[in-house]
């Protein structure tokens, strides 16, 4: 994939992160296959939720919040596209739970813009052979 396309895809993930209603950390994620965006996700509350609040009064993420990667993969599960062999672009490196889901979904490459506070997700992906690449955008 050409550098200009890598940057454009990451810029798209960053742009979609702004759709999140989270106040503390807005995360965006896109899946690309055969040079086409096949799914988009960002962190937020479940579809149809009565509230779009993502944090409690202590600024901790509420348990109901769905991560960007989970949203992106669940949208794929509802459609005709497969995540097998695709590349994802995420604004922040995945947490361990999302890393497990990424691996089990057959995603082969993960580009991320910034590190998440815990690198267990990156360690997991690298251990299981998923290509992980930092692609810093501003």
From TrEMBL:
Q: Which UniProt keywords apply?
A: Hydrolase, Metal-binding, Zinc
Which GO molecular function annotation, any one, does this entry have?
Answer: zinc ion binding
Q: Which SUPFAM superfamilies match?
A: Cytidine deaminase-like (SSF53927)
Keyword Manganese annotated: no
A GO-annotated cellular component: cytoplasm
Pfam families per the record?
dCMP_cyt_deam_1
InterPro entries (UniProt xref):
APOBEC/CMP_deaminase_Zn-bd, CMP_dCMP_dom, Cytidine_deaminase-like, dCMP_deaminase, dCMP_deaminase-rel
Q: Which PROSITE patterns match?
A: CYT_DCMP_DEAMINASES_1, CYT_DCMP_DEAMINASES_2
Asked if Hydrolase is a keyword of the record, the answer is yes
* Coiled-coil stretches noted in the UniProt entry, renumbered to this chain: none
The GO biological-process annotations, alphabetized, read as:
pyrimidine nucleotide metabolic process
Segments traversing the membrane? none
Q: Where is the CMP/dCMP-type deaminase domain?
A: 4-138
The text of the family note is: Belongs to the cytidine and deoxycytidylate deaminase family.
- Kindly give the PANTHER family that the UniProt entry links to this protein: DEOXYCYTIDYLATE DEAMINASE, DEOXYCYTIDYLATE DEAMINASE-RELATED
The name of this protein is CMP/dCMP-type deaminase domain-containing protein
């Amino acid at each position: 994939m050409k550098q200009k396309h890598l940057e454009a895809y990451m810029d798209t993930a960053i742009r979609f992160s702004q759709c999140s209603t989270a106040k503390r950390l807005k995360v965006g994620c896109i899946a690309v296959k055969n040079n086409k965006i096949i799914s988009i996700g960002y962190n937020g509350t479940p579809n149809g939720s009565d509230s779009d609040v993502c944090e409690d009064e202590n600024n901790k993420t509420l348990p109901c919040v769905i991560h960007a990667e989970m949203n992106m993969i669940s949208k794929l599960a509802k459609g005709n596209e497969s995540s097998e062999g695709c590349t994802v672009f995420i604004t922040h490196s995945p947490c361990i739970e999302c890393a497990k889901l990424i691996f089990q979904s057959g995603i082969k490459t993960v580009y991320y813009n910034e590190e998440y506070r815990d690198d267990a997700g990156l360690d997991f992906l690298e251990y299981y052979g998923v290509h992980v690449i930092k692609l810093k955008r501003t």
